[in-house]
Write a structure and sequence with these properties.
This protein is α/β, with parallel strands linked by helices. It has two domains: 395 residues, Up-down Bundle (Amino acid/polyamine transporter I), CATH 1.20.1740; 291 residues, 3-Layer(aba) Sandwich (Rossmann fold). It is 59% helix and 7% strand. Helix 1 packs parallel to helix 15, helix 6 packs across helix 11 and helix 8 runs antiparallel to helix 15.
């Protein structure tokens, strides 16, 4: 793994832009992709740990590890080739691609670990150089060599950013020569009959995999070069695939060569065995130094650019985005990078750093594959890569990465994923707004489409009934707290809530409507109220309500309950009653909440409600009673209402009826496992004294449910108006009242048949 010099150009757009003013050089596949990719994969592991891996794992396990790591890397490269040929990859490389696809929160949750990984990789390469140097000059301690090397490389990165660009081909030639020297050596051919680890105390398969995997990482930075290639759609996949296959066969060949040339005991005990086996040791030393130092300096130039990209997007303090000097270097970001690398150099070793790099790389690779796979699965019109890749391949890469993480160390994997989730949640709370579109809307739309079509084909189940409230609020600027608190308490986390408002045609200014819609949604989001908002043009509020009742909804997701306030306008009463009659004929339940009554709580209040929920039994409609019981049950599921009690109240004419009604209530409660209190009152004239008794009994209640009959068939609305107007008049001095009219064809008795795991009401 390494950061190579070509990728520096992608991390330094300002420098490249200044140079391109005079001449814009386009690279081909070999120099633009293949060479830098090979240099990324021929580094510390191949020279300093591959022998140990062969000796510890045995030949067959080593070949399996190399194959599995190559497959994961290859799939990730293909995914990034598709992404890079769909958009121009900007500053930040992998972070840029993830954040522009899955959103700024997900991108940042991966971008911060990615920056940490890039910083640690500097330590990894520096420690690798220090181990090699220490073998020649043992009088110097490893930490001292590492610190001195890091200091020199940092100074070089500050002073001469073009240095790496000039030596890339030289390093490539040196590495090729060092590989020749290796295969030319090893004249003593052994026969290691044991194809298994040298001892039972050897690390596990997945532990050795974690040690090896960094050898094939870092190649994702090639995607940043897509804008500098003559033919990106050809060069990216061809160059990277060829590089991975080359590295795969070279690693396989070296593993077999070492197994046949060196005893397993020596492979395990001698970390510099490749140097000692080679024909020309000096070439191996030059190869180690060239690969590690170029990788380290590439990291010193690359990691600060990732941190700079995070700062420019507002994820970390803006101070890290500041640039200095002729080439506009992010020196503050570089200082933090060096500080993190210094910690790794002082306290780490290759054996400690490699597994940590593996875990972070697997997280990043999983997210990169996920982003590309979802893009192709969504098939958005904006997804038109010149190198298309089937989504199943990318998502397979995601699964392989997750499995590898869990197998290496399930605890560490869960902890790492937890940290990523914690970063995501923290950024979500900050409500950072990105300046670009991502595919999150497309993902939600895709799965919503899937769910809606399946719901449309499914047989409706009464046991799965949920409230779907269509709440009419009249003017957008006047939303009743009472209606809002009632509706949100019942539907929150359990159903759907749509807030519908209307405006006159002369007010149909598109910009004002959009601004008002945004304001309402922002207010609801601020108070953590989940609701849909729809603003509709209508000549009158009642005509708009009729349109919504008749046409609002999609497939099976149509409102089953209409919620609105009463009307105090005499001239508008008949039109209002037409709405109620239409709702009943359309099979919509109706709930009327008196907006003038004081609510038991503010819609966003989480303080416990004081008082009980009273359901007044409707002798004329058992369906009304069943629906009121369902609403009371769902209301009590709301955290603010949990301490309230539900009381089923009835007024009867004599003692014999009271005994019969009590028996009916007890059977209802037992059959449905409802924890409800009952109260049956006796009055000689229950119909005449009903509201007086209600007022006295329910004065301290938090919510009162009353049944309301629909217009009879053939009944004039003027006649029904007398009955309708009497309800709010007689209950005007009550606590908050909800008038309920059941019209839905759902079997509400089955709705009340709660599953035992739900517990009691």
């Amino acid at each position: 793994m390494s950061f190579t010099v070509d990728q520096i150009k992608a991390f330094q757009p300002s420098m490249v832009e200044e140079a391109s003013i005079e001449q814009k050089t386009k690279f081909g596949t070999f120099f633009g992709i293949y060479v830098p990719s090979i240099l990324m994969m021929f580094g510390v592991i191949i020279f300093l740990r591959l022998g140990w891996i062969v000796g510890s794992a045995g030949l067959y396990s080593t070949l399996t590890i190399i194959t599995l790591a190559s497959v994961i890397t290859l799939i990730t490269i293909l995914s990034m080739s598709a992404a890079a040929t769909n958009i121009k990859v900007g500053k930040g490389g992998a972070y840029y691609m993830i954040s522009r696809a899955l959103g700024i929160e997900v991108g940042s949750a991966i971008g911060l670990p990615l920056f940490l990984k890039q910083s640690i990789s500097i330590s990894f390469c520096t420690v690798g150089f220090a181990e090699s140097f220490h073998s020649l000059y043992p009088q110097f301690s490893l930490p001292a060599i590492g610190v001195a090397t890091l200091a020199v490389l940092t100074l070089l990165a500050y002073v001469s950013t073009n240095f790496a660009l000039k030596i890339q081909m030289a390093i490539f030639v040196i590495i090729i020569a060092s590989l020749y020297s290796l295969f030319a050596g090893g004249s003593e051919m052994l026969e290691n009959y044991s194809y298994t680890p040298v001892s039972d105390s050897s690390p596990s398969f997945w532990g050795i995999f974690a040690m090896f995997f960094p050898a094939l990482t870092g190649i994702e930075s090639s995607a940043s070069l897509s804008g500098d290639l003559k033919n990106p759609s050809r060069s990216l996949p061809l160059g990277t695939i060829t590089a991975v296959l080359t590295a795969y066969f070279v690693y396989m060949a070296i593993s077999i060569f070492l197994f046949q040339s060196v005893s397993l005991e020596r492979l395990v005990s001698d970390p510099l065995v490749i140097q000692h086996v080679a024909k020309f040791e000096s070439l191996i030393i030059l190869g180690i130094w060239g690969a590690t130092l170029s990788s380290a300096i590439g990291g010193l130039l690359g990691a600060p650019r990732t941190l700079q990209a995070l700062a420019e997007d507002g994820i970390v303090p803006k101070v890290f985005a500041k640039e200095y000097g002729t080439y506009r270097e992010p020196r503050i970001a570089t200082a933090l990078t060096v500080a993190l690398a210094l910690i790794g150099v002082c306290f780490g070793s290759i054996n400690v750093i490699a597994p940590l790099l593996t875990m972070i790389c697997l997280i990043c690779y999983a997210m990169l594959n996920l982003a590309t796979g979802l893009e192709d699965l969504m098939a958005n019109p904006s997804w038109r890569p010149t190198f298309p890749l089937p989504w199943i391949i990318s998502l397979t890469g995601t699964v392989l990465c997750v499995i590898a993480m869990l197998m290496i160390n399930s605890g560490a994997a869960i902890l790492a994923l937890g940290m990523v989730l914690a970063i995501y949640m923290a950024l979500k709370r900050q409500r950072i707004h990105s300046k670009w579109d991502d595919i999150r809307y497309g993902i939600l739309a895709f799965f919503s489409r899937f769910a809606i079509y399946r719901l449309a084909c499914a047989v409706p189940s009464s046991r799965s009934w949920r409230p779907h409230f269509l709440v009419f609020t009249g003017k957008p600027s006047s939303v009743s707290d009472h209606i809002l608190s009632f509706s949100t308490a019942i539907t929150q986390t359990k159903g759907f809530l749509t807030m519908a408002s209307f405006f006159a045609p002369e007010q149909a200014n598109h910009e004002q409507i959009a601004e008002l819609d945004h304001t309402i949604k922002t207010l609801l989001k601020h108070h953590k109220i989940e609701a849909l908002v729809t603003l509709n043009q209508a000549k009158t509020v009642t005509s708009g309500m009729k349109q919504m009742i008749a046409h609002y909804g999609i497939g099976p997701l149509t409102p089953n309950t209409i919620v609105c306030g009463g009307t105090s306008q005499e001239e508008n009463l008949i039109n209002y009653l037409e709405v109620i009659r239409l709702a009943h004929r359309r099979g919509r339940n109706v709930v009327i909440v008196n907006e003038e009554q004081k609510s038991s709580q503010h819609p966003t209040s989480r303080s416990p409600i004081k008082g009980d929920i009273h359901i007044w039994w409707d002798d004329h409609s058992q369906r009304n009673c069943e629906l009121m019981t369902v609403f009371a049950y769902m209301l009590r599921k709301n955290p603010a209402w949990r301490r309230t009690r539900i009381c089923l109240v009835s007024v009867v004419s004599d003692e014999s009826v009271r005994v019969q009604r009590l028996q009916e209530f007890q059977e209802l409660i037992k059959r449905n496992r409802l924890k409800i209190e009952t109260s049956i009152l006796v009055s000689p004239n229950p119909e005449q004294e009903r509201f007086g008794i209600m007022k006295s009994f329910s004065m301290d209640a938090a919510m009162v449910f009353l049944g309301m009959r629909p217009p009879f068939e053939g009944e004039l609305l003027e006649e029904y108006a007398t009955y309708f107007q009497s309800l709010p008049q007689k209950s005007a001095e009550f606590p908050p009242v909800a008038l309920v009219m059941s019209a839905e064809q759902t079997n509400l008795q089955e709705v009340l048949q709660l599953d035992p795991i739900d517990g009691e009401l």
